[in-house]
From TrEMBL:
Phylogenetic lineage: Bacteria, Pseudomonadati, Pseudomonadota, Alphaproteobacteria, Sphingomonadales
Swiss-Prot/TrEMBL keywords: 2Fe-2S, Dioxygenase, Iron, Iron-sulfur, Metal-binding, Oxidoreductase
Rieske domain segment(s): 73-180
GO MF terms held by the record: 2 iron, 2 sulfur cluster binding; dioxygenase activity; iron ion binding
Species of the source: Allosphingosinicella ginsenosidimutans
Cofactor: Fe cation
Name listed for the protein in its UniProt record: Aromatic ring-hydroxylating dioxygenase subunit alpha
Disordered, as annotated region: 1-21
């Protein structure tokens, strides 16, 4: 039995692995699926348990802040957040604060958001500036980080000849996303993201823009929050309403190098947990009822005689998204217009692939190891000639729901939110102090921790 009265009991799954794989479903698609999605990318790992101290120990969190966060590329902003020279985005994470700033030549630079005089933050929110003047004593820097003015400069003659430019972080750009990295050296952004740029060249996130952006503080460790979106194993218990059109156990998991992994969860099919006898019209009716992210509420679709719900949804979405984005999507496979291609880039960036309105997750530790700022963006696609509006993040209060802003997707997210506080308090109360993971379905979680350990060992 579940402890959430909103979630009904679900049948016990069989002890046999599903005979239908995502690859076998993709082989039936009406258009060819890209070869890179058919690849089986694995990384050999053992099945040792994880220690709960990774989530509950303040010392472990301090080690992450000191050894990991400064050395990784972090998604800091989207291009549409800062279209004009002087626009800047305040990005804060793991004890650091940055001003990610559009320069006069259109380039982007990132500066530490700290006055070099008495340490006050120069800015406390995103915006536009002709310069960065400290509100405390008036020390002022140009938007290129160079020092502009010291009030009463006669009293600072001891600083003559010193470089008082704002310290700078590395900046990289890909697909409309802007990344920063504090520490010098290490892999380039392209190396760090590989093979993401190769895969997403087909889906062109550089043509995307933010249509919705909602954030909420979750009382759980940032890793526990991120891991809730790395596997579909939890669907049958946490999201039973979507089992009637989601092949949760049919999901495919790929691991690429150290930093990137992928889960592909098929839609338009019945969950293997519910058996193998499905009415195709019922599948598509449930898809339309519970998947408002990609379907306008109230839409009805009839499945033609002899056709599957998956193929029917593929035809519908190619037309709908083609019109919505102003593009010809006749080449897109059924999978690319309905399945969940949930990529994860270490440590906290998760963009979805495909030719459909895109979900992007970002998780940031929120002041301590027990709280996380979870951000959810929806990306649309600009039609040729359109200009993206500048987005603003909606910050939810604890009593507010993702469902109020993101519809059915938000309702599903709230089911995850119900779990996470109890995951944190449960780990803190654990007697065994160990977490036992599935070998395949939770392989992305283990892959994530293997990469984290490589930073902590430095």
């Amino acid at each position: 039995m579940t402890d959430d009265p909103r979630v009904p009991d679900v049948p016990e799954s069989s002890g046999k692995a599903p005979t239908v794989t995502w690859d076998s479903l993709a082989s039936l698609d009406s258009r060819p699926v890209p070869d890179f999605l058919l690849e089986n990318a694995r990384v050999e790992m053992d099945d040792a348990p994880l220690d709960v101290e990774r989530y509950t120990d303040p010392g472990f969190f301090r080690a992450e802040c000191e050894k990991m966060w400064p050395n990784v590329w972090q998604f800091a902003a989207r291009q549409e957040e800062m279209p004009e020279p002087g626009d800047y985005v305040l990005y804060e994470n793991a004890g650091r604060s940055y001003l990610v700033t559009r320069q006069a030549d259109g380039s982007v630079r990132a500066f530490h958001n700290v006055c070099l005089h008495r340490g006050r933050k120069l800015r406390t929110e995103s915006g536009w500036a002709s310069n960065f003047q400290c509100p405390y004593h008036g020390f002022t820097w140009e938007t290129d980080g160079s020092l502009k003015r010291i009030p009463c400069q006669w009293d600072f003659s001891h600083l003559d000849g010193q470089d008082l430019s704002l310290p700078e972080a590395q900046v990289g750009q890909w697909g409309g996303y802007i990344f920063i990295k504090e520490a010098e050296g290490g892999p380039t952004l392209e190396e760090f993201l590989s093979p993401l740029p190769e895969h997403f060249a087909r889906w062109r996130h550089e043509d995307a823009y933010t249509t919705s952006w909602v954030a909420k503080v979750v009382p759980a460790n940032w890793k526990a929050c991120a891991e809730a979106f790395m596997e579909a194993y939890h669907v049958s218990t946490t999201h039973p309403q979507i089992m009637a059109f989601t092949g949760d156990v049919n999901s495919k998991y790929n691991l690429y190098g150290d930093n990137v992994n992928l889960a592909i969860t098929p839609f338009g099919v019945l969950s293997p947990t519910l058996g193998d006898s499905a009415d195709e019209q019922e599948i598509i009716d449930n898809f339309l009822k519970y998947n408002g992210r990609v379907v306008t509420p109230g839409t009805t679709i009839d499945v033609p005689e002899g056709k599957t719900a998956r193929a029917t949804m593929g035809d519908f979405n190619r037309r709908r998204f083609g019109e919505l984005f102003g593009r010809d999507l006749d080449h897109a496979s059924d999978a690319e217009v309905q399945d969940a291609f949930t990529y994860n880039v270490f440590p906290n960036f998760s963009p979805w692939g495909g030719f459909q309105p895109t979900v992007v997750y970002r998780w940031r530790p929120w002041h301590d190891h027990r709280h996380t700022l979870m951000e959810v963006r929806l990306l649309g696609r600009l039609k040729p000639g359109e200009t993206a509006p500048v987005p603003a993040m909606t910050f939810l209060e604890p009593h507010e729901s993702f469902a109020d802003h993101l519809g059915q997707l938000g309702a599903i997210l709230e089911q995850d939110m119900h779990n996470l506080p109890h995951v944190q308090t449960g780990m803190e109360a654990s007697k065994t102090r160990k977490l036992q993971l599935a070998h395949y379905q939770e392989s992305r979680v283990r892959h994530f921790h293997r990469t984290l350990d490589s930073y902590l060992a430095r």
